[in-house]
Amino acid sequence: MGYEDRDGLELEDLPGIGSATAERLRKAGIKTVKDLACIPARELEEISELAEGRAGEAVRNAREAVFPKVMTAREYLEKRKGIQFLTTGTKNLDLLLCGGLEPGITELIGAYGTGKTQICLQLCLTVQLTRNRGGLDGAAFYIDTEDTFKPERLYPIANALGLEGDQILDRVHVFRAINSDHQFEGLRVAQEYVVEKKANLIIVDSLTAHFRAEYSGRENLVTRQQRLNTFIHQLQRISTMHDAIIVVTNQILDVPEVIPGVKPARPAGGNVVAHGCTFRLWLERSKGMTKVSVIDSPKHPRSSTWVMLSEAGVKDSEVPK
Fold it and tell me: RecA family profile domain location, by residue (predicted)?
């Protein structure tokens, strides 16, 4: 339920933006009125060299052209009815998510081997399905931070979904991020692919690995969390502007003290990630299967389901006895 530029406005149509300023904005990666509406004025000053007053005015004018000032709850509900859900490829997960994935940030939390990457690979293919099969007839942009993306895994999963041919690989765009700076660059490229390649699914696997490695130690904690917070907010901005579905994987940290009723592990990234992600799913391995639980969501009930990992992808499973 994104927002459209009113009457196809171009940057030059906004008050105070001439052709020279518009060209400067486009070179800075701000190509549409929606891009301009979502960027903070201070950030705009830094990347475009616009003066403080002009930057603030440009952003305000763009927001007025794109975003309604106020909506009633009824109007907002009607707008949400236009959401296109993305199937996960399993009935159990789709039921858990009340129809599938939707725009916003969905976080997959779990230890090694719980199936986070397998779900991401499967989503790279379900997004290519036609809309009447639960897909978006679109493409995926995969930011790989841990060298976990293996394209050969797509073939058996695609066959199980009824997708054939090498063209399935052409609609999955992979960016191998080698450090946190490069990860930010991947996000900038991803936004271009959302517009130009119909990449309406963005995956970051994993979200926190580079930040944890590069900013280790308590003395770097503040800087790490600030950088991570900036990255997540940029993800949120892309999702809002383009109705993009964002999926991130996250590692877990062991908790030394075992507290009754509390998991002996917690997601990496602390409150920054917890507040930044819209839907949070916890994955656990048990008896050869994976239990998926909703641990935080503004709309989903806190419940669980079971899936199994196979050569053909992530499949439904019964509750283990």
Answer: 82-252
Domain spans, the chain: 6-66, 91-316
| Beta carbons within 8 Å of 300's beta carbon, 6+ residues apart | 96, 97, 98, 279, 294
Tokens 């399993």 sit on residue: 90
Alpha helices (H) in 215-254, listed in sequence order: 221-242
- CA-to-CA distance for 277 and 43, rounded, in angstroms? 22
3-state secondary structure of 152: helix
Sorted by sequence, the CB contacts under 8 Å of residue 272 that are 6+ apart come out as 225, 228, 229, 232
* In CATH, 6-66 is 2.60.40.4070: no
Convert the pLDDT of each residue in 144-184 to its tens digit.
Answer: 999 999 999 999 999 999 998 889 999 999 999 999 999 99
Contact indicator for 275, 228 with CB cutoff of 8 Å: no
Give the pLDDT confidence score for residue 3 in this predicted structure. 46
Cα separation, 310 vs 27, whole angstroms: 45
Distances from the Cα of 13 to the Cα of 6, 22, 61, 65, angstroms: 11, 10, 10, 10
Higher pLDDT, 226 or 7: 226
The helix or strand, by DSSP H or E, that contains position 158, with its residue range, turns out to be helix 154-161
Q: pTM for this one?
A: 0.88
Q: How far is CA 80 from the centre of its chain?
A: 18
Does the fold of domain 91-316 match that of domain 6-66?
no
CATH architecture of 91-316: 3-Layer(aba) Sandwich (3.40)
Q: Is the peptide bond before 206 cis (omega within 30 degrees of 0)?
A: yes
Helix (H/G/I), strand (E/B), else coil: 123: helix
Q: Report the C-alpha gap between 7 and 27 in whole angstroms.
A: 23
